[in-house]
Amino acid sequence: MSIGRITRHLFQHHWRAKQVFTPAVLDRIEQAIKRCEATHAGQVRFVVEGALDGAALFRDQPARARALDVFSHLRIWDTAHNNGVLIYLLLADRDVEIIADRGIDADVGAEGWEKICRAMEAEFRSGQFERGAIGGIEAVSRELAKHFPPRGPHPNELPDRPVVM
């Protein structure tokens, strides 16, 4: 466990996520999700966690493991075609993780998701949080559109509103 990581998480905490992802930014991200989901039959969720606290922090939980917890907690795996995708940002670490259900993950693969994550992280490092988030949503949606194109009306199985934890 790194003392630097603990310090970042304790001092950055949740206020930073709300400072960067204001209600207006969250509204625009939600609209991007709605717009993009019209191009495919998949489901996209965007979650920002300002920092880890409590047991997760002191267990030194990696962002990927935390993203898997969030994926499960939000029931993103519970879609009809197993095509839910979580874009998770752990702001204190500036780490983006994409967790995709088995219906889409096998088609895109770890390398494809990793490329999207790195592009988002580059935007975040330059302070372009909204642009990075929306760009990531659009990139994930392009992958979903390739493998799950819309076929008639499809229900919106998961909320489009971003989650700030």
Describe the structure.
This protein is an alpha/beta fold and 165 residues long. The protein has one domain: Diaminopimelate Epimerase, Chain A, domain 1 (Roll). The protein is built from six helices and four strands; from the N terminus they run H-H-E-H-H-E-E-H-H-E. A four-stranded mixed β-sheet has the order 3-2-1-4, sandwiched between helices. The mean pLDDT is 90.
- Number of E-type strands: 4
How many domains is the backbone divided into?
1
Distance between the termini: 22 Å
What proportion of the residues is helical, as a percent range? Answer: 55-70%
- If classified by CATH, what would the architecture be? Roll
How many helices in DSSP terms? 6
Alpha-carbon Rg, integer: 15 Å
- Characterize the biggest β-sheet: 4 strands, mixed
Strand order of the largest sheet: 3-2-1-4
Overall geometric form: globular
CATH top level is Alpha Beta
SSE arrangement, N to C: HHEHHEEHHE
Q: What percent strand?
A: 5-15%
Structural class: alpha/beta
Q: Might you state the CATH topology name?
A: Diaminopimelate Epimerase, Chain A, domain 1
List its traits.
4 strands, 6 helices, 165 residues, Diaminopimelate Epimerase, Chain A, domain 1, globular
Provide a brief overview of the structure.
Pfam families: TPM_phosphatase. The chain has 165 residues and is α/β, with parallel strands linked by helices.
